[in-house]
Amino acid sequence: MKLKLYSTLTQQVGEVVPLNDNEIRMYTCGPTVHDYAHIGNFRTFVQFDLLRRTLKYFGFALKHVMNITDVDDNIITKSTAANMTLKEYTEIYANAFLEDMETLRIQRPEVMPRPTEHIDSMVELIMKLREKGFTYESEGSTYFRIDRFPEYGKLAQLERRQGEAVGRIDTDRYDKENPRDFVLWKARKPGEAYWDTPLGPGRPGWHIECSAMSMQHLGSTFDIHCGGADLVFPHHENEIAQSEAATGRPFAKRWLHCEFLMVNGQKMSKSLGNYYTLRGLLDKGYNPLAIRYLLASVHYRKQLNFTLEGLEQATAALQRVNDFVIRLREVPGGAEDNPALSQRTRDARARFEEGLADDMNTSVALAAVFELVRETNTLLENNQVGPGNRDEILDFLSAANQVFDVFQIEEQKLEDQEIVRLIEERREARMRRDFRRSDEIRQLLAERGVALEDTKEGTRWKRVI
Ligand code: AMP
Ligand code: ZN
Predict the structure, then answer these.
(1) Ligand 1, residues 27, 36, 39, 41: which to mutate, most atoms within 8 A of Cβ?
(2) Nearest atom of ligand 1 to the alpha carbon of 261
(3) CA 209 to CA 27: how far, in whole Å?
């Protein structure tokens, strides 16, 4: 099956064909580490983790680059207020971000460059633009001259949308010839971090950072560039202008943008104060995989409204699949296989793959999983599932997990001797009619995330999320 993806540049869905052999080179605009990221930011990063995994699922090799922006206005203001160097300050939030990524099972991209370590390639890029006449200087800063790049606006469709408010114009306190011109190199300001370079003392503008780092690690033309929907304009438009003006070659072939996580009809954002951090939700007792599942469950080109109720439903949905796996594993080895279920499992896998192939439609793909779980649950009640069916279904769930990575499929072995011992002790307590001790043990296990179920065949246990 061929993987197709939308591109903001062409406004069309098209087949993914790598520029080089079988390898996709992809750049994601990463976080600016001036504070903890919120789960709105993580919706974008989870979706591009799904993209990364989807590309691999469809057999592509991948070189993925995601920056961690460690210098910008916010960082400078906050680190100065905290009386810390840029590095000391950003290290705290960069590490927190990497930890949060791990908690959400977001795979590490192959390269995670930081702007402060790439100043040379930024300066080189700006010098090239200067030689070609795309820049001008004003009060020690260097600007990009937009009217020298006639294709400006092709990503954000500025021509078509003339007159519409297409987002924030890059406001800046410096003098510019045209209000849309954007800064490539900012003159040093007293008390701020700066670099001495042939462009004068100063620091890079935000847009040039991504152009320089992506082209340094992926070459001047690469396959996919992605980011949140608010980056289309002006950030990505500016990246295209300065990169293509410098190299004379097309920059990224395909552009993907993830729509917002919303709260009551508004974008989740720091400035509105309507945000949740991952850590805040974990402190409230929510499970990180339920958060990952929720952020993954809606197609990336649609907005997703966040509520705690929605998160609870996501938790319950995941638990349903995990419970199902435990039941499925109990299918007796001698049971008869059900050919109709084998066919349904193949169909579910096909629907799952079709969903992903169709512009990574995660909700269609997940629906295929849940439908099979529902159908098979009914068959399990009627003892119509055999060991062959079980293996086929587990195999499909493992495949789904290559992309989603939220289901508990591995057998929960009773390797935790402590749990087994406690269950045995509880059984003995109940025989003695010592219900206080029996309840205590149930409570103790519950605190460790282990739930007990007493059945005719004895006590079963499972981990709950
Ligand atoms: P920042 O650290 O502010 O540069 O943001 C990191 C990423 O999160 C960018 O790609 C933003 O577009 C994205 N982002 C910010 N707010 C949201 C939101 N509410 N929903 C989805 N993505 C967001
Ligand atoms: Zn960027």
Answers:
(1) 41
(2) 20
(3) 12
Does some domain include residue 173? yes
Cα separation of 394 and 407, whole Å? 11
Domain that holds residue 446: 417-463
pTM of the model: 0.90
Phi then psi for residue 317, to 5 deg, are: -65, -40
Q: Both 395 and 440 in a single domain?
A: no
Q: Is the CB of 261 under 6 A from ligand 1?
A: yes
407 lines ligand 1 (CB under 6 A): no
Rounded distance from Cα 44 to ligand 1 centre (Å): 7
Q: What pLDDT, in 10s, does the model give residues 232-269?
A: 999 999 999 999 999 999 999 999 999 999 999 999 99
**Digit-coded pLDDT (tens) for 374-404:** 999 999 999 999 999 999 999 999 999 999 9
Count: domains in the chain: 3
pLDDT digits (tens, 9 = 90+) for 160-182: 766 454 443 444 444 566 767 89
> Cis link prior to 234 (omega < 30° from 0)?
yes
